[in-house]
Amino acid sequence: MSNLLGHYNYWIVIILMMTGFYTVIARPNLIKKVIGLFIFQTSVFILFISMAKIEGGSAPIIAEGISVYSNPLPHVLILTAIVVSLATTALGLALVVRIREAYGTTNEDEIHVQDEQD
Amino acid sequence: MEHFIDIVLLGLLMITGFAIVRMRSLLAVAMLTSIYSLLSASLFMVLDAVDVALTEAAIGAGISTILMLATIALTTDREKAPRHTPLLPLVVVFTTGAALIYGTLDMPHYGDPDAPVHRRMAAAYLHDTPEEIGVPNVVTSVLASYRGYDTLGEVTVIFTAGIGVLALLGYRTRRRNIQSPAIKKLVVLRVIAKLFLPLILLFALYILFHGDYGPGGGFQAGVIFATGFILYALAFGLGNAQRLIPQRLLHVLAAAGVLIYAAVGIEGMLLGGKFLEYRVLADDPVTGQHLGIMLIELGVGITVAAVMLIIYFGFVSRQHSGDS
Amino acid sequence: MLLANLPALQVVIPLVSAPLCLLLRNPRHAWAWATLVSTMVLAVAVMLAQRVYAEGTISYAIGAWATPWGIEYRIDMAGALMILVIAAIGAVIMPYARRSIRHEIARKHITLFYTCYLLCLTGLLGIVVTGDAFNLFVFLEISSLSSYVLISLGSTRRALTAAFQYLVMGTIGATFILIGVGLLYMMTGTLNMTDLAERLPAVTDTRTIRVAFAFVTVGVSIKLALFPLHIWLPNAYTFAPSVVSAFMAATATKAGMYVLLRFFFTVFGNQFSFTAMHAGEILMLLAVAAILVASLVSVFENNVKRMLAYSSVAQIGYTILGISLASTAGVTAGMIHMVNHALIKGALFLALGCVFLRLGSVTLKDMHGLARHMPWTMAAFVAGGLSLIGMPLTAGFISKWYLVSAVLAAGYWPLAVLVLVSSLLALIYIWRVVEAAYFNAPDAAMHKVKEAPASMLIPAWLLIGVNFYVGIDASLIVSMAQQAADALIGAALQ
What we know:
heterotrimer, B: mainly alpha, 2 domains, 77% helix, C: 2 strands, globular
């Protein structure tokens, strides 16, 4: 039982990651793609943070009376990764706005058709 | 109990994730993404990652949602059906997922305190932080001191995003104050905004300086600080907000934060130490650490706040330029 | 103080110069500032490379925290070679950029362009000097994000879609690398590359590490545009401003290859990567596909920029072929080709940029009879083309020579034939450009076309000059590449 529970957390998160990944590569709408990227990255963060959790531990802020703390290093890495994800989302959405102005659509299939005609 | 909350949150995340893939209305998808981000933040709280939860809530549920809504407002709300069969993407996704699950089989169990990942560096950080840095929040000590260089890279990433949005969307200053008549009528919004703005800014400063002792730090503070001004812009109109903070000032602030951070590092070098060595900044090494951490968090907060506003104004001022 | 902190300064100088560039109002000042900084960066790179050549690997602890608790900058010969290439290309391109950028980008964006360029330079340099796996990810993202912006500044709307496509693929790649690094951390508890190398042999038998290897490899392959994950490259190079195409063709994919080398040899180790995971066979297969398919596509392209982009995919195939042999000779050949390709493609794209400045187009049919009006530009293109094909006395010949020797030493003589066949294909597509420019009758509009300005011709010819110099006396580059290969493979054997 503990084996299943031990890994169940990770498996659910992997399903979440794949949901985001699928949205990026399968959906033609550009905004959906950016959102899919966001979901993919956020789920990767959950995976990392799950790795840092220690059973019975507490947040890594040193205080009286607490002996077990969860691992602070993945927290630091994920803080950086969240900011990188925001930067990517902002740039992606800015590009979508410009593409819409230039092509009149945010659908990848329609953009291909227009590019072919160029 | 913790396990139960954990399972419930994961379940809700899955439902939200599937809904995001299937729904066609992009406005609904943006809202669902915001919910996804909030659920993740809650999950982070359950997983003891309090700093990360605060950041995810502010950045993911806050700023990212605003940007998505702004983009949808500037483009279309409906998603069209895909033309190609999803066979290849499904195969790729399936393979990737299967590979990952295969990879987890040998991993230490979730929550295992004896896993190697906890032994090497984490134990040393937790043990050494009180003596070497003297700051209770170990995440801050690692982020700002031990791995401070990564954080400088992070600030540079944010700065790059700001530059990118400036280059792509520009920033049009509105002389007239353009505001939707519907919002103008909402007296409640304007009163509350006026009441809350100083509280929000104060809270942001609290998060900034209290990041040593509890969850918080430069990034969260910068985002919250920017949120105050975004609220003002929503309630009182873009023109007024832009007059409050001119474009040039935002450029200077965005650059200033990065420069403050780098200056702390360079000062370390000039005083005979290595780049970003805080010990040499004061007579007592621990005081030096405190000084270094405070200055870089300030730098981070300034750049993040400025860049968030640059990005927000970039998106929203584009919208109004579309009006005739 | 200055000399002791050189490793940090290599990245800190461009990093600090970017926000300062933003504050400059006059576009001409922005260009001057970027040129000054690029020169300083080159000076630091030369000093660092000399030190590594003389003393061996340099290690620098940022923040003065002991490894692995802090982040370490670690420069061995491979890293030294990379910083030289990146810094040199950056320094040569800046004088060229003044006219080219003024012509291709709107005035209000020029300061932002140079700011982004400095950020890209920071990111690329940060990738190749770091000894920490997560720090590598952060600076990889800095260089990628600034690249997306730089590409999007191209003159047509297709630059926007090219940038978006690159953004999506690049972020997927970066996320895969993050997953891989995370799995590595999970099994070993460390992020420092040398530390990882020590601790990995104890856990390499686990499924987790194998999956980590796979994810890192796929992620890096997207970044270095290895077939079939190269899809973003042709559009990105074709529609970006000329300076950006030249800079990226010469540096960005090379940084990606460096990351591959780092992970394969230093972190995972020769034994694990090539024997246990069969990376050598898979890479070889993909490299062959890249060389054949990309060269064939180039032959039929009418847009010369696109032709060169596909040619780059083929050239990346050559380097990966060398690396896949996993022998000292193979890796040496791969590194030599990385340097030479930077010189060749840099020169070719710069020459094309001159053509674009005067003609406003780079399609073959618009270039008929161009050679009479732009003799120096076309001569530079022809010289670069000869190097691309691999004529003796050029840098291209040196790379192909070492590559074929390494391939034959490993016993794969059909691959040597492949290299020759693809050189023939290169001859065909270069000939198409030569034919159009020298032997076809010009249109009526052509008589107004003047030669390119000196500020653009001199950097292009500088790179061509180095091409010929290396073709005649390659001893310095070969010895540095050999040292680099020894450092990479030797470290793995410890």
